[in-house]
Amino acid sequence: MGIKTKVKIGEEWVNGDEIDFKVKQDDWNIYELEDGTTIKLKTVVTKIIRTEKWHAQRNDPIYSVSSNTVVECTVPENLKRKY
């Protein structure tokens, strides 16, 4: 089991365990805008905590996930500002 910790869910602090994980798939979401710009987004998970709290209807544990979003843009030359 991982490091013991507390996370805030709504207004409540809940005990949990930091869970080790491995990345099985690492895809980008790619959006092409009508002006020709391409925006790529990727969520990079940095920490996962399985809490001691359970989802009432599904009876699954509730997880807290910390992540960052990586953004990459490709902009057509005609939209770039001239100096």
Structural overview:
There is one protein chain. The protein has strands spanning 4-9, 12-18, 29-32, 38-54, 61-74. The protein has one domain. Strands 1, 2, 3, 4 and 5 form a 5-stranded antiparallel beta sheet that branches. It starts with a strand and ends in a 9-residue tail after the last strand. It is elongated, with a radius of gyration of 19 Å. It is mostly beta strands and 83 residues long.
Outline of the structure:
The protein is mostly beta strands and 83 residues long. The chain has no helices and five strands. The protein is elongated.
In whole angstroms, how far apart are the ends?
56 Å
- Mean pLDDT figure: 93
**Total domains:** 1
Structural class: mainly beta
How many strand units?
5
Helix content: under 10%
**How much of the polypeptide forms β-strand, as a percent range?**
over 45%
Radius of gyration: 19 Å
* DSSP summary: helix tally: 0
- Morphology: elongated
Run of helices and strands: EEEEE
What profile does the largest beta sheet have?
Answer: 5 strands, antiparallel
Q: List low-pLDDT spans.
A: none
